[in-house]
Amino acid sequence: MRLIAVDWGTSSLRGALLDDDGSVLDEKSAPLGILNVPGGDFAGTFASCFADWMRPAGSLCLISGMAGSRQGWLEAPYVACPAGLADLAHHLRWIERDRIAIVAGLSDERDGVPDVMRGEEVQIFGAMRLCGIESGLFVLPGTHNKWATVRDGRVTGFRTCMTGEFYGLLSRQSILARTLQADAPLDEAAFRQGVTRAGNGEGLLHNAFGVRALALFERLSAPASASYLSGLLIGEELRTQSLEDVGEVVLIGAPELTARYALALGQVGVETRMLGAEATWAGLRSLRAAM
Amino acid sequence: MRLIAVDWGTSSLRGALLDDDGSVLDEKSAPLGILNVPGGDFAGTFASCFADWMRPAGSLCLISGMAGSRQGWLEAPYVACPAGLADLAHHLRWIERDRIAIVAGLSDERDGVPDVMRGEEVQIFGAMRLCGIESGLFVLPGTHNKWATVRDGRVTGFRTCMTGEFYGLLSRQSILARTLQADAPLDEAAFRQGVTRAGNGEGLLHNAFGVRALALFERLSAPASASYLSGLLIGEELRTQSLEDVGEVVLIGAPELTARYALALGQVGVETRMLGAEATWAGLRSLRAAM
Fold this sequence. Notes:
The first copy, chain A, has 9 helices and 14 strands.
């Protein structure tokens, strides 16, 4: 039975055709995220991308990500943590019975404030499969980073940090943009300096202004400012996590991002392992097995 | 001897004509901040606004604010803290000797990272005069807030927080903007809820996402979200200050902003006193007396 694994996010649509043993037979991606679906025609867009893969009888498609949000194809619920694969399997929303399903997201509530994820839960389950572990701390850097705790195969809780979005706003639209080259390659020394600075506990609102002042006094170049700011933000994120008894953190995401987290976590003595897009395909395969 | 007191900032130009005893005889303001000076002609813009006030022999004009920055009329230095009125008087930069001068800014360095202010130092000295105090904690809310410590008439140190700019970016340009009415009037209960939430110490990167999640679950309306976010930011600012032995905080700025700080500081048991634009005029008057 062929599995068509689809990750339909805000800005892009990616799919993989997997055979029975999980090998990737083919992959596709298009800039057709849920906010860019022509005419809001999700069914048509899906067909134009995946009709050929879906043709054989018995083909099953599982779709994770923002396709299940209110602005997506079909709203799928948020399953409350702790949640495992069986819970996700139980809450699938079928577009076509036994043929195309949307995967639910996860929610977690702490002190009266909820938190949500859509798509990352599948990557976490995939990473567990690929790493052969059932417990641990999983970090998924991106626009809205997720820090998720897993125990005995279930996501017990998680927190979102708007680190990626803050970086975009501060580096491109704030006063810092005047003396900062947002797309500069990583300057490791400046990045580490930012991570260290965040540890002073004086807070992002103050430390961010230091980027401006250092540039005014010509102590930080425009390319180095970008890495310093990135280090400040990731360092601030680390400052608010409990990393004491964490043996290893599993990082899932784009290599240029996970590499930065590996650097910052290494700086505070935490080991890391990195995974990329393959985690999504492995997670959807695990989900099918749990159905 | 008449004093023409001018506050030339980034976005606006304001002036007051003061007589010998400090009474304000006249005031003017124009949207001619240093970034909006036609053709970069500072002298011409100054003349078109204040030539009539400057006509009597012996008129003296002191200009504080961003007019002394690199992008301004004439670059004035930053005087290192601790600094008092005598230091500012010593570092005036004359546009026309004994007639028009630009006031220096202040700098403060901590752990190898500098901080700067331009214009706020004059407001602080003015507030000292108006309140009849020589020591205390002064807070100047705005795009880039200043928290300044004063002892025996000298500014001993200060910190900038980008709170106002963060509010603008998050409320208007981030994902939060989708469910937030940035210009909604203050909802005091939601504001206090945000201040309290910031005290959880989980950091702004995480707590800011709570605004989104609360809105998704329809637990926070668009107008209330604005106040909640404002409370989160000001609460985060307070979290990183040493407020233990502070008897009273002097707040200087626009009433709609200082009122929010008074609320948040009141929530943590700190008393406040509020001053507005009059602090600038009083500060420039004190500076003339120190020349």
